[in-house]
Specification:
- The protein is mainly alpha-helical.
- The protein has 18 helices and no strands.
- The chain has helices at residues 2-13, 17-29, 36-48, 52-64, 71-83, 87-99, 106-118, 122-134, 141-153, 157-169, 176-188, 192-204, 211-223, 227-238, 248-260, 264-276, 283-295, 299-311.
- The radius of gyration is 23 Å and the shape is globular.
- The structure holds one RNA strand.
RNA sequence: UCCAAGAGAUUCC
């Protein structure tokens, strides 16, 4: 059953859900019955595939089979419900799990916090941190990153910046994701200078800005009307000796910035560079370009791009 | 007894 579960996990992580289900059914009729981990893997998989209802059915099924769901199973389900904005169902599962004497851990709290933050309920999310500490569960770097992100996205960037100090005081070092969250918050708040100061701070702490950091800064620069600076930064990222490879987000951010200013020719040039680099763009790329053309009154060009996108295999959304 | 499988966070319309 352990080997089967490992294989099941591989299939699930590779998004080969059909084969995963076949394997799971084979386990049921064979000698190696699905165990707790098998159910955990499959539940997580169907949930990530958007089928949370089936996740719940599998939970019932495993209980009928005499298996007790553990904190892994519950965190997959809670994460799925919270992820789609249904915090109430997440809490219900949290209570159900408590009734069954399964103790929550830091991951379960993270899932709930994310759900609360997504619904703009940052105050409840930050209460969660206190609640978990009161229960002897130590917040980790993910907890603080979620807290900072929730605060940023509720327009409380200043408090998010303070989380960086708070967590250090509590013995947790911010990592790249934590810094990126705060940099993004500051960029969205049009505070590029402060965002750059956070980047400096992360470098001082020995963390290397990664592609997400740069993508975030590019978006921030464009949003602050510094599109040319964004283009220059993109050039740096594209240089041979630079250690990171720009991705579709990188290009899209700059393309969006140029399109917003009506600089369609420049946006197209950037798009060409992207294609030369072997990146095909995605539906968002083409939406930016088409929207830019339309706003600039370039209907023919917009249709050309539409056709190009469709011919490249994209379905207009 | 030991060893092996599973869950949470950041950037684009």
């Amino acid at each position: 059953s352990i080997a089967y579960s490992a294989l099941l996990n591989g299939l699930c992580k590779a998004k080969r859900l059909v084969e995963a289900r076949v394997l799971f059914e084979a386990m049921k009729v064979g000698d190696c019955k699905p165990n707790l981990v098998s159910y955990s893997v499959l539940i997580d998989c169907v949930c990530k595939n958007g089928e949370v209802g089936e996740g719940l059915s599998l939970l019932e099924e495993m209980e009928r089979e005499g298996l007790c769901a553990d904190v892994f199973v519950y965190s997959s389900l809670i994460s799925a419900f919270c992820g789609k904005g249904d915090v109430e169902k997440g809490r219900e599962l949290f209570d159900e799990m408590s009734r069954k004497n399964v103790s929550p851990n830091v991951v379960v709290y993270s899932c709930l916090m994310q759900g609360l933050s997504k619904s703009g309920r940052w105050r409840e999310a930050s209460d969660m941190v206190n609640e978990m500490m009161a229960r002897g569960i130590r917040p980790d770097v993910v907890t603080y990153t979620l807290l900072a992100d929730g605060l940023c996205k509720s327009g409380r960037v200043e408090e998010a910046v303070k989380v960086l100090d708070l967590m250090v005081k509590k013995g947790e070092e911010p990592n790249n994701l934590t810094y990126n969250v705060v940099v993004n918050g500051l960029c969205m708040d049009d505070r590029m200078d402060d965002a750059l100061r956070i980047v400096e701070r992360m470098v001082k702490k020995g963390k290397k800005p990664d592609l997400v950091t740069y993508n975030t800064l590019l978006k921030g620069l464009c949003g602050a009307g510094k599109v040319d600076e964004a283009v220059n930064l993109l050039r740096t990222l594209l240089s041979e000796k630079f250690h990171l490879k720009p991705d579709v987000f990188t290009f899209n951010n700059v393309i969006q910035g140029l399109c917003k200013e009506g600089r369609i020719r420049d946006a197209e040039r950037i798009h060409s560079t992207m294609v030369e680099k072997g990146l095909v763009g995605n539906i968002v790329t083409y939406n930016f370009l088409i929207e830019g053309c339309l706003n600039a009154g370039k209907l023919v060009k917009a249709l050309e791009i539409w056709k190009y996108a469709v011919d490249s295999g994209f379905s207009p959304n």
